[in-house]
Amino acid sequence: MSVDYDLAQGASRLSDASFSFPFRLVLGSRSPRRRGLLTDAGYRFAVLPADDAVEEREPLDGLSPSELVDRLAFVKARDVVRRLRPLVEPQSSPNLPNSADSSENAALRREIDAIFGASNAPFVVLSCDSVAVCDGEILGKPADRADAERMLRLLSGAEHEVRTGLCLWATPGDRVLRRVEISRLWMAPLSEERLAAYLESGLWEGKAGAFGYQDGNDWLRLTYGSESNIVGLPLAALADSLRTLAAELAPPESL
Predict the structure, then answer these.
(1) Banded model confidence at residue 169, pLDDT cuts 50, 70, 90
(2) Cα(51)–Cα(30) distance, integer angstroms
(3) CA–CA dist 48, 164 (Å, integer)
(4) Considering 81, 94, 113, 120, which has the largest number of Cβ atoms within 10 A of its Cβ?
(5) Given CA atoms 74, 78, 80, 81 in this order, what sign does their dihedral have?
(6) Distance (Å, rounded) from C-alpha 149 to C-alpha 117?
(7) Between vectors from CA 87 to CA 125 and to CA 120, what angle results, nearest 5°?
(8) CB atoms within 10 A of CB 188
(9) 67 Cβ partners below 8 Å, 6+ apart?
(10) What are phi and psi of 194, to 5 degrees?
């Protein structure tokens, strides 16, 4: 068994307060779990979620689980970078919908300046996408309670994987880092009473595979990989990738 991260101990280990990143980090997700993980790990960041429609417009048929989460993380990051362009390219034509003098861009600039102060540092957009995989079936977020029940019955008494695509996109410069992290879980057989209670709780809503590892369920056991990956943001992989970008983006004397 290989377990490389523990949520109870990992934040202080992964966040180095003495290390100053030469960019402004932007989380391209509306997930409160990802926001909480970043906050607990000590990162300073702004939040600018991708448009929900980017997933609907993307052709995804025929992709493997790893290809799927990698692609979705990439297109989400691309959408957020598109919305940030006017802030890093203020010379854009004022006639364009996303020009820097629009009210939306002005509000976004004020919000980001409130977090990072006046700065010309590059942005690094962070986007993720996670799915559960069991017996070759990709399990995303359940559409409704019936779909959640179907997923949980499939997972009951079985080992499955959680795969998360992680994309970091620096702008300007368009340096993109992409990786997929895999964790494995075993779910104990669920009695009818336990299954009904969990479905009634509503804790399955908005969670890949219809469960939340962070909910503290004693019927889930990590057998391989990262706990934070199961929650939706692989913190160890993120820390490694951010340091790689920092080394590339910062002048040598500032590292």
Answers:
(1) very high
(2) 10
(3) 19
(4) 81
(5) positive
(6) 47
(7) 80
(8) 14
(9) none
(10) -70, -40
Cis (ω within 30 of 0) for the bond into 49? no
pLDDT in tens, 68-103: 999 999 999 999 999 999 888 765 444 445 444 578
Q: What is the pLDDT of residue 19?
A: 54
Instruction: Dump the DSSP string for 120-183.
Output: -PPEEEEEEEEEEEETTEEE-S-SSHHHHHHHHHHHTT-EEEEEEEEEEEEETTTEEEEEEEEE
Q: What is the pLDDT of residue 251?
A: 64
**pLDDT tens figures, 40-57:** 999 999 999 999 888 777
Of residues 74, 65, 218, the one with CA closest to residue 135: 65
State which H helix or E strand residue 107 sits in: helix 103-116
Mode of pairing for the β-strands spanning 137-139 and 159-171: unpaired
Neighbours of 171 (CB within 10 A): 22
List of E strands, 205-249 = 220-226
Supply 111's token pair.
């919000």
Q: pTM for the complete prediction?
A: 0.83
Share of the chain above pLDDT 70, in %: 86
CATH architecture of the domain 2-254 equals Alpha-Beta Complex (3.90)
With 0-12 / 13-18 / 19 or more C-beta atoms within 10 angstroms meaning exposed / middle / buried, residue 176 is middle
CA distance 223 to 185: 5
Rg (CA), the chain: 19
Cβ partners under 8 Å of residue 138, min gap 6:
65, 68, 131, 132
List the catalytic residues.
Answer: 129
